[in-house]
Design a protein that fits this description.
This protein has 205 residues and is an all-alpha fold. It has 2 domains: 1-58, Arc Repressor Mutant, subunit A (Orthogonal Bundle), CATH 1.10.10; 66-202, Tetracycline Repressor, domain 2, CATH 1.10.357.10. The chain has helices at 13-33, 40-47, 51-57, 61-81, 89-106, 108-118, 122-147, 154-174, 181-200. The chain is elongated and about 65 Å long. The mean pLDDT is 90.
């Protein structure tokens, strides 16, 4: 799948506005109908443009969703790349989880469509694995000193923690808009810190 560049790779301000309108329409279409059921016909109707205009910018529906996912993935990567250290470890973890939750909440419709598309398209599944992998590697890096000498694998512990956060955020924020995000973040922080402390108390041998 690919996004089509107009004008030999250049975009005019008018062209960019049209592209953004199509992306907004794609977001709305998948939010209402789901990724599989949404059609290019739905997108162009919402955007108020022709099919030809859509295909000027995107090869197909998947390419439009892929562009939306790109923005979401960039924001998630920014959370991975931000500093994860500070004098208060629990507060730092709460901040990181809070930023993660905020990205999911902001892009809830895109995340829902991404998860749905991943079950049908290996490209989207691979993009999801890449984002998860980045989080797991970063968490494992942070856990390595704390778990030294315990016999616990930091990568395995990181995978479990990331799965816990992702699962809770997906069910609590992406699928249930009414949940109180602050309480979710604090709960995940407490579970994360408590789990790491318990693992760090184990001494190998």
């Amino acid at each position: 799948m690919r996004e089509v560049s107009d004008g030999g790779g250049r975009r005019t301000s008018r062209g960019e506005r049209t592209r953004l309108r199509l992306l907004d329409a794609t977001r709305e279409a998948v939010a209402v109908r789901g990724y599989v059921a949404a059609r290019v016909e739905d997108i162009v109707a919402l955007a108020g443009v022709s099919h030809g205009t859509f295909y000027t910018y995107f090869e197909n529906k998947a390419a439009a969703l892929d562009a939306l996912i790109g923005t979401t993935a960039e924001e998630l990567q920014a959370v991975v790349d931000e500093p994860w250290d500070g004098p208060d470890g629990a507060a730092t973890i709460e901040t990181v989880i809070g930023h993660f939750v905020a990205v999911f909440a902001t892009h809830a419709a895109v995340v829902r469509a991404w998860l749905e598309a991943s079950a049908h398209d290996t490209h989207f599944a691979e993009r999801l694995r890449e984002v998860r992998g980045g989080y797991v590697r970063r968490v494992a890096q942070v856990l390595t000193p704390a778990l030294a000498g315990t016999g616990h694998d930091p990568a395995l512990a990181a995978s479990a923690l990331v799965a816990m956060v992702e699962g809770a955020v997906t069910q609590g924020v992406v699928d249930r808009d009414e949940i109180e995000q602050g309480e979710l973040v604090r709960t995940l922080r407490s579970l994360w810190v408590g789990g790491v402390v318990r693992l760090s108390e184990d001494v190998e041998g």
